[in-house]
Amino acid sequence: MNRRGFLAAAALGLAPGWARATEPLYALRFSSLRPGTPLPADYRPYAFSAQSRHTEYSLVADEAGRTVLRARADASTAGIIRDLRVDLDTHPVLAWRWKAARLPQKGDLRAKAGDDFAARLYVVFDLRLAALPVGERFGVTMARLIYGDDVPAAALCYVWATRAAVGTLAPNAYTGRVRMVVVDSGPANLGRWVAHERDVAADYRLAFGEAPPAVKGVVVSTDTDNTGELAEAWYGDAAFRARPNP
Asked: What is the rounded CA–CA span in Å between residue 9 and residue 4?
C-alpha cells in the first residue's frame, strides 16, 4: 500500500491488519529461490512408501530468467507440499501459472487407471474428521493409516487434464474427499505458460455444498504412476489474494 492509501485507511479508522489483508499470501514462491539449489525445508517432498519410482523436481530458470519448479514423471509419482494457513474470508482467490510439455495420453480422471496428470495443484483444507459422516471418516482414517497423515479430509485439486472438458468438477477416482477441477485440458497450450485465478472459496462451496474451512496447505504434483507414461511440467509462483474491488 502506498502512503496515500495508508492515510486513507487511517482516516477511516481501519486497523493495520486491513492493509495486510489486501496483500497476497504466497503459497509457493519459487521465484525467490535460486536455480540448481535444493528446495527449502518448508517445501516438503511427499511420496507413497510403496511407490519405488518418484517424480523428479528441480529449480530451474524459465525463459525470462525467473526461477520455477520443473517436474518430470516417468511412470512415477511424488509431490511437493507446503504447509500454510490461509483465511479464505480475506484471501479467497488463488492465482498461479504453470506450463506442460507432455501429457499422459491414457489419462482419465474418471478411472483409477487414468488418474495421472501433467500438472496438479491441490488446496488442502483444515477440516476435522469429526465433521465428516461416519463412513467418510472411516475411509479417511484408513487411508491415513496406509499412506500417512498428509491424506486430506477435504481438498480441491486443480488439474491439466488429458481430455476432460475445462470446467469439469468431479470426485477423485480414489476418494470423494478430493474434488477435481479441470482448468486446462488437451495439447493446445502445450509449451506455453498458462495463468489461472480461481475463487477457492466459491469452488469449495460448489464442490462440497458448505462454507469452506481455512486452508492448511498446498501441493503440486506431476504423476504418471497409473498409466506408466512420461509427463513434464513447470510450476511458477502461487499466491492467495483478496477479491478485486467491484
From this structure: 9
Give me the mean pLDDT over the 144-167 stretch.
76
Answer whether 241's CB lies under 8 Å from 96's CB. no
- From CA 103, how far away is CA 214, in angstroms rounded? 32
In our burial notation (b when 16+ CB lie closer than 10 A, e otherwise), range 111-145 reads: eeebbbbbbbbbbbbebeeeebeeebbebbeebee
Looking at the structure, give the CATH architecture of the domain made up of residues 24-241. Sandwich (2.60)
- Please give the full DSSP string across 177-212, using - where no structure is assigned: TEEEEEEEESSTTTTS-EEEEEEHHHHHHHHHSS--
Q: Would you list the domain boundaries of the chain?
A: 24-241
Give the C-alpha separation, 126 to 31, whole Å.
27
Handedness of CA 129, 130, 134, 138 (dihedral sign): positive
- Please state whether beta strands 178-185 and 155-161 pair in parallel, antiparallel, or not at all (unpaired): parallel
How many other CB atoms are found less than 10 A from the CB of residue 160?
A: 27
- Rounded to 10 degrees, the C-alpha dihedral 176/182/186/189 comes to -150
Q: Are 179 and 156 in contact (CB under 8 A)?
A: yes
Q: What is this structure's pTM? A: 0.84
Each residue of 73-131: pLDDT tens digit? Answer: 999 999 999 999 999 999 999 999 999 999 999 999 999 999 999 999 999 988 554 45
Residue recorded with cell 476418494: 175
Q: What is the pLDDT of residue 176?
A: 79
**What is the chain's length?**
246
